[in-house]
Design brief:
It contains 16 helices and 14 strands. With 402 residues, it is an alpha/beta fold. Bound molecules: pyridoxal-5'-phosphate.
Length: 402
C-alpha cells in the first residue's frame, strides 16, 4: 500500500496525534468522530458549504502570478490569495464548515479560543450569520494588544471572556475553552481554529481548509497546463492554512513542501515559537505532538512578533511530516518576516499579515531555478499588523526609509 501522510483510522499521523482528553470529553468527542465524515461528505452539507464559500467568503480566492517577485527570486511564483477572503484570512473557511457541522449535530452553543483575535472574529462572524450564541476565550494580554478585534467580536454579538492565567495568552485561552467544554459537554460545540487538538479536529480542520489546494489544482491547470507546482510554501502556527495548501498534494512526491515557522528572536534564543525546530514530543491540548518544553517538561511560553504563530505546539500532521522529511521547515525570525512583508508590499502592492510574511521570507532560503513553479499561500491581509510594521521599520532594511 502506498504510504499516506494523512490521518490513519485511529487518529494518528505516524506516532503523532490521537485524543488525550479527560473522561468527560470522550463522549462528545466520539460523537464528532462518528459523524463528521458522513456529514462533511454528504450532498446537503457540500451544497450549503460550497454556496457559503462562494457567496459569503468570496471563493475561489485568486491564484495570482507575482511577476516582479518571480524575477527577483528566479522562479515562477504564484500567490494563493487567502487575504482576499471575508474577514481577511483563511480562518473563515474552517469556521463556516464547523458551524454547519455544529448545527447538523444539534448543538446550541458555540465556544472558541483566540490569540490575535482572527479566529475569534471568524467564529463570531459565522455565529452572527447562523444566530448562535458565541463565547470566545482570550488571554487578557492578547485582549490588550488586539483591542480592535475584541471590539469586532463584540459588535458581531459574541461574548469575549478574558483569561487570567499563565502568561495570559493563547495557550491559556485554549485550556479555559477546554474547561468550559468539560462543564457543558452536551450542548456545546467547540470550534477549534487550527489543525490542532484531539482527533478528529486536526483532520476535520484540514479537510475544511482543503478547498485551498483543490482550487490551486484547478487554477494551475488553467494557467500553466499542469495541475501541480514544484513547491508549496506556507507559514505554520498550528498548521491550518498550510494543511489546506498541501492537502491534495501531500502524497504526491513531485511536489516539495516548504513550511515557515516563527523563529521569534532566533530558534536557539529562548524567545521563539519554532516548535518543529526546538520542540520535543509531548502532549498538548489533547494531542501527542511536538511541544516547546523546559528541561523538566513544562510547556514553554512561545514568543513571536506575530500573534497568530505564537503557540508552543504544532498540529500533529507537521510533527510527522518533519520526522519523515516530507517537509522542509525554515525558522523565520521576526526581523526577516518584517523585511519580507515590506518587500512584498513594495514589489507587488500586497500588505501581507505578519504570519504570511514568514512564508514570504522562506523564498530567500530556497534554492530555486527559473522553471520552478512555486505556489505560496498568503494566509491573511496585513491591516491588523500595520502598527507593528511601523513600529519595526528598522527591521525593513532599504524599505524602512519613509
Ligand atoms: C491564525 C493565522 C495563521 C496561523 O494559523 P495556522 O492554523 O497555522 O494557519 C496564519 N496566518 C494568518 C493570517 C492567521 O490569521
Amino acid at each position: 500500500m502506498k504510504q499516506t501522510y494523512l490521518v490513519d483510522k485511529n487518529g494518528y499521523y505516524g506516532e503523532f496525534g490521537g485524543a488525550y482528553v479527560p473522561e468527560i470529553l470522550q463522549a462528545p468527542l466520539n460523537a464528532i468522530k462518528e459523524q463528521y465524515l458522513d456529514i462533511i461528505e454528504s450532498e446537503e452539507f457540500q451544497r450549503e458549504y460550497m454556496e457559503l464559500l462562494r457567496d459569503y467568503v468570496g471563493r475561489p480566492s485568486p491564484l495570482y502570478r507575482a511577476a516582479r517577485m518571480s524575477r527577483r527570486y528566479g522562479c515562477e511564483l504564484y500567490l494563493k490569495r487567502e487575504d482576499l477572503n471575508h474577514t481577511g484570512a483563511h480562518k473563515i473557511n474552517n469556521t463556516v464548515g464547523q458551524i454547519l457541522l455544529a448545527r447538523k449535530m444539534g448543538k446550541r452553543r458555540v465556544i472558541a479560543e483566540t490569540g490575535a483575535g482572527q479566529h475569534g472574529v471568524a467564529t463570531a462572524t459565522v455565529c452572527a450569520l447562523m444566530d448562535m450564541p458565541c463565547l470566545i476565550y482570550m488571554g487578557a494580554a492578547d485582549m490588550e494588544r488586539q483591542r480592535l478585534n475584541v471590539e469586532r467580536m463584540k459588535m458581531l454579538g459574541a461574548e469575549v471572556r478574558a483569561v487570567h492565567s499563565g502568561n495570559d495568552t493563547l495557550s491559556n485561552a485554549v485550556d479555559e475553552a477546554i474547561r468550559d467544554w468539560c462543564q457543558h459537554p452536551d450542548e456545546t460545540f467547540y470550534i477549534i481554529g487550527s489543525a490542532v487538538g484531539p482527533h478528529p479536529y486536526p483532520d476535520m480542520v484540514a479537510r475544511l481548509q482543503s478547498i485551498i489546494s483543490k482550487e490551486i489544482k484547478e487554477q494551475l491547470q488553467e494557467k500553466i497546463g499542469r495541475n501541480h507546482p514544484d513547491y508549496l510554501v506556507a507559514c505554520v502556527g498550528g498548521g491550518s492554512n498550510a494543511a489546506g495548501t498541501i492537502y491534495h498534494y501531500i502524497d504526491d512526491d513531485r511536489v516539495k513542501i516548504v513550511l515557515a515557522e516563527a523563529g521569534g528572536k532566533g530558534a536557539d534564543s529562548g524567545h521563539t515559537a519554532a516548535t518543529i525546530n526546538v520542540g520535543r514530543v509531548g502532549i498538548l491540548h489533547g494531542s501527542r505532538t511536538l511541544v516547546m518544553q523546559t528541561p523538566d517538561g513544562q510547556v514553554m511560553e512561545a514568543e513571536s512578533i506575530s500573534a497568530g504563530l505564537d503557540y508552543p505546539g504544532v498540529g500533529p500532521m507537521y510533527a510527522n511530516l518533519a520526522a519523515r522529511n516530507r517537509a522542509t521547515v525554515f525558522s523565520i525570525n521576526d526581523d526577516e518576516a518584517v523585511r519580507a512583508a515590506y518587500e512584498l508590499t513594495r514589489t507587488e502592492g500586497i500588505i501581507p499579515a505578519l504570519e504570511s510574511a514568514h512564508a514570504v521570507a522562506a523564498l530567500g532560503k530556497m534554492e530555486l531555478k527559473p522553471t520552478d513553479v512555486v505556489v505560496l499561500t498568503v494566509s491573511g491581509r496585513g491591516d491588523k499588523d500595520v502598527e507593528t510594521y511601523l513600529a519595526n521599520k528598522a527591521m525593513a532594511g532599504e524599505y524602512g526609509n519613509f
